[in-house]
Amino acid sequence: MRNNNHNHGNVIEVQQISKMFGSFTAVDSVTFDVPRGQIFGFLGPNGSGKTTTIRMLLGLLAPTSGTALVLGNDVRKQALNIRARLGYMSQKFTLYNDLTVEENLRFFGRAYGLHNQKLRDRIDYVLEMADLRGRERETPPNLSGGWRQRLALGAAILHEPDIVFLDEPTAGVDPLSRRAFWDLLYRISGQGTTIFVTTHYMDEAEHCENLAFIYFGRIIAQGAPGEIKAEHLPGDVIQVTPGSAADAMHVLTKAHQSGQIPGSVDVSLYGAQIHVLTQNADATRHQVLHTLEQAGQSYSDVDVIPPSLEDAFIRLVQAQN
Q1: What is the Cα–Cα distance from 169 to 178, expressed in whole angstroms?
Q2: Same domain for 203 and 102
Q3: What is the pTM of this model?
Q4: Are residues 151 and 55 in the same domain?
Q5: Are residues 27 and 52 in contact, defined by beta-carbon separation less than 8 angstroms?
Q6: Which DSSP state fits 204?
Q7: Where are the alpha helices (DSSP H) in the chain?
């Protein structure tokens, strides 16, 4: 168990950091802080600059400009000082397929400088924590995606890092395994480890204490999930479940743009449903029903719900385009 006496302040401080690859700007003047002991979500679509930012914070890529301090060390000049205090789990789960679960953990533990009883204790801890007892002699290809994911996380935290970076850790993993993985993250965070997690799953982002939205290399919003929603989505959402999402979307967008739906701020497609952002839920709901019925559009439900992070993200992205 780690010592939590220093559970204050920021463990990551990023100021105007940019990364250019030739004439392409992958990360553009990004600024954010990560407080100690938090689960910090770095949210954005694929290709938005999430992995490039992580690689700069790990000291694997030099920033083109700006400064980044990780555990008080400048990543450009003092990367070697922090390597041993960081954990990293990449999108690809860097595990050795010809080694067993236990051999993988032993290999990574030794790479992090663990030996003898300390190494045995940490392997025991990871097997227990990740519920891998009884699977010690399995090789990664014989494990499901969820178990491989837990093993990769266990390997990343063997050496009790101050910060663990997780790059899209749940991509391609089934929803039940994703939920179990997040339960693990809460436990690890509760023991004082700071978790920096990139994701494009909005439901996961809701679980983070603080977030930064990155889009085409720029941060377009940051704060606690509730703060982001309150700032960018004042009001409620009318959620429509229509017979034909495409047809109903066309009808409601036209009505919104021509001012026929009172209080409506925005209309967006949300899978098979439509979300109408409004500052007057009752009037908007009534007019949405009337508009659909007049256009001969069927629907099974029209509900008033609180805005989600996905609503906020869609609105923020629309504002950029």
Answers
A1: 9
A2: yes
A3: 0.84
A4: yes
A5: yes
A6: H
A7: 50-57, 79-82, 101-111, 116-129, 145-157, 175-190, 202-205, 225-232, 245-257, 281-294, 309-320
Per-residue pLDDT, 39: 96
The amino acid occupying position 65 is S
The string of pLDDT tens digits covering residues 26-53 is 999 999 999 999 999 999 888 899 999 9
Residue type, 145: G
pLDDT band at 5 (very low <50, low <70, confident <90, very high): very low
pLDDT band with cut points at 50, 70 and 90 for residue 264? confident
Which residue has tokens 């693990």?
184
Last residue of a domain, which of 203, 223, 243?
223
Residue span of the structural domain in which 252 resides: 234-320
Residue 1 pLDDT greater than 60, yes or no: no
Q: Are 228 and 222 in contact (CB under 8 A)?
A: yes
- Neighbouring residues of 138: CB distance < 8 A, sequence distance ≥ 6: 100, 101
- Reduced to 3 states, what is the DSSP secondary structure of residue 286? helix
Q: Which residue has the tokens 């019925």?
A: 293
Residues in contact with 308: Cβ distance below 8 Å, sequence separation at least 6, in sequence order:
202, 206, 229, 237
φ and ψ of 94, to 5 deg = -70, 85
